[in-house]
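Meet today's protein:

…
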Amino acid sequence: MHVFEPGLVEVAACDEETAPAAVAKMGERWATSGPSEVWRVPGEPGVRVRTYATVRPVPAPCMMTTPQAPTLSFCGVTV
């Protein structure tokens, strides 16, 4: 992986299936734009893809639901 500018990441891999899979794995942890088209650099082994990514974590599914009213607990009694 190489970060060209804040948020722009280039991933190098051995084949066309691995490069997008690596970006998909990044998407499990961070918000990404998804992989670009796969391309080869003449004279270099493997393939490359780029993605835009943010280091802010992807919200867990439970965080995407409607917020519940807050509850307070004092000495085992929920208010």
User: Anything to note?
Assistant: Confidence is low (pLDDT under 50) at residues 69-75. The beta strands are 2-5, 8-13, 30-32, 47-57, 73-74, 77-78. The CA atoms of residues 40 and 47 lie 5 Å apart.
